[in-house]
Amino acid sequence: MRASPRTSCSGCGTPTPTWGGVGRRLTTPGTRWFLLTADYAFGHQFEADALGIIPPAGGVVAGSVRHPFPSTDLSAYLLQAQASGADIVALANAGADTVNSIKTAAEFGIGRKGGRQRLVAFYLSVLDIKGLGLPAAGGTLLSEGFYWDIDDGTRRFAERFRARHGAMPSQNQAGLYSATLHYLKSVAAEGGKDPEAVMRRMRRVPIQDDVVRNARLRPDGRMVHDWYVFEVKQPAESRGPWDLYRLVDTVPGDQAFRSLDAGGCPRLLNE
Question: In terms of CB atoms within 10 Å, which end of the chain has fewer, N or C?
């Protein structure tokens, strides 16, 4: 959900896609996927991750296509996805490309409630959905590490945030709060800002606040916590301007994030 505090290991804390557990949750034997991939490094990584997850889970990649980055017209690519017969059309892109993909998919009926194809976005936020609107985005599946309406704790934090900023917090905003709070708690407990002492405590003590669940900071700098699968609500299902998601599943952190021994961290490997 957030960039973890960094150690001296260069790159171990670099965020990577965390939809792996989500991909396994959505894949049953025989599930057919179509990958719509942005043609640059970020999209390529999503695609590679998908190819490493879907077939082992019993799914089938029925087809894939790469689109230029950035793209304003994704019609031809989405028509190809629609014609593929895939059960799931996956958007391995981000930002404006994902927003444009969802708008176009809605025009073609991809991902509509009761339709034969589901639409899955690998990288999407509640602020994107707010901007898109439920008529266009309703039915889209996505994953995030935070949503304001998960439980009493997330609602408490979100109401405090809204009182100050007039809007509900995004995943990134909530994550920055949680990371800063965990650091400040560790500084206070250590009685100073010595980086080695503070980092040892940050790794040793579970992260507990209103934002995250079952969270801990690993030796490689990765912050592991529960991750969530959401379905964007249809307009008739929403009870208010920020009632945007329906919780589909909770993925435990040890399933949502790459395992420690699979990271190839040179510092850890040499210890």
Answer: C
Plot region of 202 (φ>0 → left; ψ -120 to 50 → alpha; else → beta): alpha
The whole-angstrom separation of Cα 151 and Cα 134 is: 22
Separation of alpha carbons 15 and 28, rounded Å:
27
CA–CA distance, 121 with 231 (Å, rounded to integer): 10
Question: Quick one: DSSP state of residue 200?
Answer: H
pLDDT in tens, 34-76: 999 999 999 999 999 899 889 988 999 999 999 999 999 999 9
The neighbour count for residue 131, using CB atoms within 10 Å, is 11
> Could you give the CA distance from residue 119 to residue 89 in angstroms, rounded to a whole number?
5
Burial 158-174 (b: 16+ CB within 10 A, else e): beebeeeeebbbbbbbb
For residue 260, the 8-state DSSP code is: G
pTM reported for the whole predicted model: 0.88
DSSP 211-240: S-SSBEE-TTS-EE--EEEEEEPPGGG--S
How far is CA 193 from its chain centroid? 32
